[in-house]
């Protein structure tokens, strides 16, 4: 009967309390109340997984997916804690101050986590939850990557008007709007910080690969004018990362190092004065010799009065590439896209804490129902 009631309630959007999804709280408290973690055989976990699957599949709207990512990831955290008591219990302290501190913590923080002996049904439930988290995370990340790919295709080369002027960076503004929309959605749905960071870090890594590889594959893009256009766009991305703060953007800005340094080279005016040491240690330290050679060989100054690198530097780079790979024209200069890697599930522990659940309160309407009186305990 409890499970039937839970199935009816948990599929609804119950909102949030203390920045955590109420649905997660209701499901977890119901599992504890029914002692579902203790038996060797139970069907309650299967029914919850089926319920979640049906709820998730109702819509592919990002807000819907973000809500269920919040529910499943926070529930996974609680289940992880429940099944790993040794990892979450503080070690006893021998000092008087240590014992006093632990005593204070135990009375001031009421944890809803109940540690149990590991049983197969619960272990399987944890794996199934993890699979849902990875699926939802991948869907949201790939949806953003798909939109970014289309927008970046319009940003790689400066659009020129008939009189030779560059269009304003309106395409980059569309990218910023898309990033803002997703960030707002993830924040509204209280998705754990570590997941939000990982989404944007991987998408910025994807952006770096897309822009950098496009530069080194299209000679017409390696110009001073185009570098100026790209730099204006990258400046907007830097401002976005700053406004989003490290709390949400993580190391996203650092993921653009390759394209940032390549663009830095394109907008350098006195390229003929660049020495090998300056090129490799100051201007473009993360670029390989193959990438430096390709960039310098592709650079064109036909439409402006900037010079190219000296013949001596270009010759030295070509010689080093030949020594390294035997073929200065090989495609070893291209970056590999690693932005499709699965989310590391264990990282959820880093941005969720048991005490975050201590003051959670389901809605009064839910507590008024006789079958959910135990939630107030």
From TrEMBL:
<protein>
    <recommendedName>
        <fullName>Dilute domain-containing protein</fullName>
    </recommendedName>
</protein>
<dbReference type="Pfam" id="PF01843">
    <property type="entry name" value="DIL"/>
</dbReference>
<feature type="domain" description="Dilute">
    <location>
        <begin position="46"/>
        <end position="323"/>
    </location>
</feature>
<feature type="region of interest" description="Disordered">
    <location>
        <begin position="319"/>
        <end position="338"/>
    </location>
</feature>
<dbReference type="InterPro" id="IPR052072">
    <property type="entry name" value="Vascular_dev_regulator"/>
</dbReference>
<dbReference type="InterPro" id="IPR002710">
    <property type="entry name" value="Dilute_dom"/>
</dbReference>
């Amino acid at each position: 009967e409890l499970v039937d009631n839970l199935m009816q309630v948990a599929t609804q959007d119950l909102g949030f309390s203390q920045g955590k999804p109420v649905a997660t709280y209701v499901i977890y408290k119901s599992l504890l109340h029914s002692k579902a973690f203790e038996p060797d055989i139970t069907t309650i976990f299967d029914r919850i997984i089926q319920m979640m699957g049906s709820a998730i599949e109702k819509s592919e709207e990002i807000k819907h997916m973000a809500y269920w990512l919040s529910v499943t990831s926070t529930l996974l955290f609680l289940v992880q804690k429940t099944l790993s008591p040794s990892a979450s219990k503080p070690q006893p302290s021998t000092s008087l101050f240590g014992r006093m501190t632990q005593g204070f913590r135990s009375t001031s923080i009421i944890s809803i986590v109940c540690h149990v002996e590991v049983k197969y049904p619960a272990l399987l439930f944890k794996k199934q939850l993890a699979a849902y988290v990875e699926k939802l995370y991948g869907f949201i990340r790939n949806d953003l990557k798909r939109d970014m790919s289309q927008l970046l295709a319009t940003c790689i080369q400066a659009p020129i008007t008939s009189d030779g002027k560059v269009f304003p960076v309106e395409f980059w503004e569309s990218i910023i709007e898309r990033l803002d929309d997703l960030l707002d959605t993830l924040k509204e749905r209280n998705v754990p910080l570590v997941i939000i960071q990982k989404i944007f870090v991987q998408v910025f890594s994807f952006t770096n690969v897309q822009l950098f590889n496009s530069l080194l594959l299209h000679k017409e893009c390696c110009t001073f004018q185009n570098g100026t256009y790209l730099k204006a766009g990258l400046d907007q991305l830097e401002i976005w990362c700053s406004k989003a703060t490290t709390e949400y953007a993580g190391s996203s800005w650092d993921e653009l190092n390759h394209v940032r340094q390549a663009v830095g080279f394109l907008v350098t005016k006195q390229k003929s004065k660049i020495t090998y040491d300056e090129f490799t240690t100051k201007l473009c330290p993360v670029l390989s010799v193959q990438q430096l050679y390709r960039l310098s060989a592709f650079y064109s100054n036909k439409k402006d009065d900037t010079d190219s690198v000296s013949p001596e530097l270009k010759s030295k780079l070509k010689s080093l590439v030949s020594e390294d790979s035997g073929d200065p024209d090989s495609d070893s200069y291209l970056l590999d896209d690693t932005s499709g890697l699965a989310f590391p599930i264990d990282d959820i522990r880093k941005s969720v804490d048991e005490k975050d659940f201590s003051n959670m309160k389901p809605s009064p309407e839910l507590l008024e129902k006789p079958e959910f009186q135990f939630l107030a305990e």
